[in-house]
Design goal:
- The structure is a single chain.
- By secondary structure, the chain is an all-beta fold.
- The protein is built from no helices and 20 strands.
- The protein has a single domain (about 15-300), classed as Tachylectin-2, Chain A (5 Propeller), CATH 2.115.10.20.
- It is about 0% helix and about 45% strand.
- Strands 1-2-3-4 form a four-stranded antiparallel β-sheet, with no helix packed on it. It has a four-stranded antiparallel β-sheet with strand order 5-6-7-8, with no helix packed on it. Strands 9-10-11-12 form a four-stranded antiparallel β-sheet, with no helix packed on it.
- A hairpin with a 2-residue loop joins strand 5 and strand 6.
- The mean pLDDT is about 95.
- GO terms for molecular function: hydrolase activity.
- Keywords: Hydrolase.
- InterPro entries: GH43_arabinanases, Glyco_hydro_beta-prop_sf.
Length: about 325
């Protein structure tokens, strides 16, 4: 079984999920890019003008739509604005969101300046803008943040202008960031990619990226040097809505295994035939897969029933 665990009931375009436990309620909250999947017309307008959607679950199995995040727009940016790929973590008693943001809802990316913006919240509902991160220009997206063994914080993110590669920045406190440099190039050895995600499981640190043909896997002993292992979730699942490659994932570690939340285009059977123009091909839905480590390799199974989450280790 690999049926979707969540379908956005308004826009039908849930993508780029991130999942975090609400420390006050014990619930699991999913934040996601809420693409406008039913928007017609040419161009990229359907993935712009997107709010951040919220879904909530008591156990990680049954998810209910809970609206969208308010208050993320820069004052003066009237009308629809674009919000992509939220990264939400908790540290020092507050929640932090790192979000790709730009003004407007254009149908072309020409001249569009994409940034990663930092917000904080006491409760996952009310968010306060802190700053735009001082990263390279002009277009950086898809932040992921994890704590290093040294106690500092590192952010991995995509640089769209430099080969769709992964770069990093470092911070002592999640507020002040300094750019470091390239981590994974967009090259023949590591094809162009997006959506980096870093987690620790089975005694190793892992970095996964979305190569639009499955998720690339890298392993590290120190979060500094990364060794490529190959692809996971590059083969279609058994459910009719899980026949395309797994895309832009987030991982919740629960003891000796983990839940990997990813999205698919359910109308696409990418491995078998060209993408059809049916009017439904822009839809996206959220799935979950099970992760574990076996003989030093990351393994994944997408053909599983949704399973309860325990508090992240």
């Amino acid at each position: 079984m690999s049926a979707p665990i969540f379908i956005d009931p308004v826009q039908d375009g849930a993508a780029d999920p991130t999942v975090i436990r609400n420390e006050d309620t014990g619930e699991w909250w999913m934040f996601y890019t809420n693409r406008r999947a039913h928007l017609g017309g040419p161009g990229w307008g359907w993935i712009c003008g997107s709010p951040i959607g919220i879904a909530i679950s008591s156990d990680g199995v049954e998810w209910m739509y809970a609206g969208t995040v308010e208050g993320l727009d820069l004052p003066g940016d009237d009308g629809l604005n674009t919000h992509w790929a939220p990264e939400v973590i908790r540290a020092e008693g507050e929640y932090h969101m790192y979000l790709t943001y730009y003004a407007g809802a254009p149908d072309s990316f020409e001249g569009v300046y994409r940034t990663i913006t930092h917000f904080t919240s006491p409760d996952l509902r009310t968010w306060t803008r802190q700053s735009v991160l001082p990263l390279q220009e002009p277009n950086v997206i898809d932040a992921c943040v994890a704590r290093l063994p040294s106690g500092a914080w590192r952010m991995w993110y995509k640089d769209e202008e430099r080969g769709s590669s992964t770069w990093s920045a470092i911070s002592p406190d999640l507020y002040d960031w300094k750019m470091e440099g390239i981590v994974i190039p967009g090259s023949p050895d590591a094809p162009p990619h997006e959506g980096p995600n870093v987690f620790t499981l089975g005694g190793h640190h892992w970095l996964i990226t979305d190569e639009w043909r499955g998720l690339a896997v890298y392993r590290s002993a120190d979060m500094e040097r990364w060794e490529r292992q190959g692809l996971i979730l590059s083969e279609p699942g058994t459910d009719p809505m899980d026949r395309s490659f797994a895309r832009h994932a987030d991982v919740v570690v629960t003891g000796d295994q983990a839940a990997l939340f990813y999205f698919t285009h359910p109308e696409w059977d990418e491995a078998a035939k060209p993408i059809p123009e049916t009017g439904q091909e822009r839809r996206t839905v959220i799935h979950v897969a099970k992760l574990w480590v076996e003989d030093g390799h990351l393994r994944a199974d997408r053909d599983v029933a949704p399973f309860p989450l325990t508090e992240a280790a």
